[in-house]
Amino acid sequence: MMLGPAIELGLPATVLATDPAESAAAVAGEVRIGRHDDEQAVRGLAEAVDAVTFDHEHVPAAILEALEAEGVAVRPGPAALVHAQDKLVMRERLSALGHPCPRWWRITSAEELVDALAQAGGRLVVKTPRGGYDGHGVRVISDPAEVADWAAEHDELLAEELVPFVRELSAQVARRPDGEAVAYPVVQSLQKDGVCYEVVAPAPGLDEAAQERIQSLALAIAEDLGVVGMLAVELFETADGTVSVNELAMRPHNTGHWSMDGAVTGQFEQHLRAVADLPLGATTPLAPVAVMVNLLGGEATDLVPGMRAALALEPALKVHLYGKGVRPGRKIGHVTLLGEDAEDLLARAHRAETLIIHGVKEQR
Amino acid sequence: MMLGPAIELGLPATVLATDPAESAAAVAGEVRIGRHDDEQAVRGLAEAVDAVTFDHEHVPAAILEALEAEGVAVRPGPAALVHAQDKLVMRERLSALGHPCPRWWRITSAEELVDALAQAGGRLVVKTPRGGYDGHGVRVISDPAEVADWAAEHDELLAEELVPFVRELSAQVARRPDGEAVAYPVVQSLQKDGVCYEVVAPAPGLDEAAQERIQSLALAIAEDLGVVGMLAVELFETADGTVSVNELAMRPHNTGHWSMDGAVTGQFEQHLRAVADLPLGATTPLAPVAVMVNLLGGEATDLVPGMRAALALEPALKVHLYGKGVRPGRKIGHVTLLGEDAEDLLARAHRAETLIIHGVKEQR
After folding, report:
1. What would the mean pLDDT of B318-334 be, rounded to a whole number?
2. Which of B7, B307, B348 would best serve as a mutation to test chain A binding (most A beta carbons within 10 A)?
3. What is the residue range of B14's domain?
4. Which among A2, A28, A181, B36 is least buried, having the fewest CB atoms inside 10 angstroms?
5. What would the pLDDT profile of A16-72 be if each residue is shown by its tens digit?
6. Is residue B96 part of a domain?
7. C-alpha distance from B4 to closest chain A C-alpha (Å)
8. What span, in angstroms and rounded, lies between the C-alpha atoms of A301 and A356?
9. B264 touches chain A (CB under 8 A)
């Protein structure tokens, strides 16, 4: 999704992909084949470009630190990125900075986990510090035995209280190397089985003061951590309206896909502008409400008949397919609708989603 | 500009380009090298894809007719495309259909040209029927000697009266193979040295009835000629508000670039949807006014410093650079701004244009 904006801005993009069949590699004009954790492969990419950025967090910090020490423009830099790579580092840093977090514990022994469970009232969210995504690496436990396998594999685990949230919010901001930064409207996101499923922009019922307060929090985190590029701050909102940080992502994020069609500057263009050190773009929405619904793999393996039916029903529907093989529950695309009434838009977007992922035969 | 939407819709695109350095070839994931007038090259492309379309009109009809006869989906088909390839065929057909045209003459001899000049009051626009673009192949004459070179080279020329137009309009429509069609708002276009330079969408001062009348004309032409894909109908508007057809283009057209950022469905996505026989998208504008200004090559050879300055001044500016080498007067990109006041938007878009094409040093 970064390639279209790169073409339009005249910024030549080179993709490093493990396999030529990966969806980005299949459509990019310039592709290098190599692993993101192979120093020679990453170094070869860095030598071919003016700046290096990421669409995931899994490039080892040691590789990025070596490149940065040699003068390569790594954006975001490894000192920022580590807060999206390691949840313990993130919790420690955000807490030290005074940014709101759930209660959390660093777990290095069975005793610490027993203590934390007791302090948290018998239930905890336990996370592997690194490598988790989309619900992987996260378990809700009431007995240490439920993470015995992780305890054996990892020196440290992160434990967090279960936040009694009423909903999840997400705040996206972008920041340039010189500190210039912009904020998008704060959105409401709904997860399904640990995967982002539905986003409403802006978050319904969030008044202007709350919008600004949360945008300021995200901008402060971007500044404090020295982020360059897009930063997504995923948040829990509790019944009293307070928020606490759930996770950070330093790249265009699923909760910001609405902006591709719903804002003057989409998040992929914005990320490129930040990474290329170009002035940032307006984040103004193009309609009062945008809704985004993820397409998670269903019964249909050929998505075209369902897309045809959905587009026929909704001429203003924006369909984005990722060129990935369909597997149950896998993110294979998303749809966006702009309008005025979130409920109506959501109902229509979900109807389109159903048509596309289950195929038109399901609808007879 | 078709590649970004192709990526998002999940439609794999293959580009046939003469040279790997051509701008589309440089950014496309799949490229074949070959000439558009080499039957084997076009046939090779056709065998690799489900449908063939164009970003110019210069593929010989004989090649397309042969492919179509063999069952290849050529969209638009050669029977439609000839009206964008040959201006005499276009004039003859539109006149026969009763669509408004300037007075015109088929010129096959010096005597016919003398006669036509006399009938037209001493001045004529003479055009080579094929191969012209951006002012090439068009001359205003008052003496047959002024086209003596063309008369020697061409069996036939097209002569047209000089229409006393007050402005030029352009009407874009899209049509699917089954006849489903949609119309974009009619826009005002301004030429500079025969090249499209500035577009305002919708055309200022054109009331709803006139908008609908002109949209209906463009839809009728698309239907009559059997167009599939985008059709641009360039029009002269005279002081009494009547219009006549100037030229036709059967592809995304410069006068429709505003829709990439200014309409729910941009013209490149729309063209792909029509060509892939997907339901067409909403043409609804995203703002009351959109202005588009072309970037024609100026003094700056590196466009980035000027783009940086322009984006800093105008956070909502949409910049599109074509990855082409800069030559004086060559179309190298365009900029778009959305808003409410056409005059204000044009002034700001031209300021951005100046910064980008002449470089920031010019602005001190």
Report:
1. 94
2. B7
3. 3-84
4. B36
5. 999 999 999 999 999 999 999 999 999 999 999 999 999 999 999 999 999 999 999
6. no
7. 4
8. 10
9. yes
Q: Is the Cβ pair A10, B303 closer than 8 Å?
A: yes
pTM of the model: 0.95
- Residue-wise pLDDT for A207-255, tens only, equals 999 999 999 999 999 999 999 999 999 999 999 999 999 999 999 999 9
ipTM for the whole predicted complex goes beyond 0.90: yes
Token pair 């103004």: residue = A284
* Residues of B in Cβ contact (< 8 Å) with A9: 307, 319-321
Smallest CA–CA distance, residue A160 to chain B, in Å, is 38
Check whether residue A154 and residue A169 sit in a common domain: no
- Close Cβ partners of B335 (under 8 Å, ≥ 6 residues apart): B292, B293, B295, B310, B317, B318, B319, B320, B349, B352, B353, B356
Residue A116 to residue A362: CA distance in whole angstroms: 48
For residue A271, being part of any structural domain is answered with yes
Final residue of a structural domain among B122, B137, B160: B160
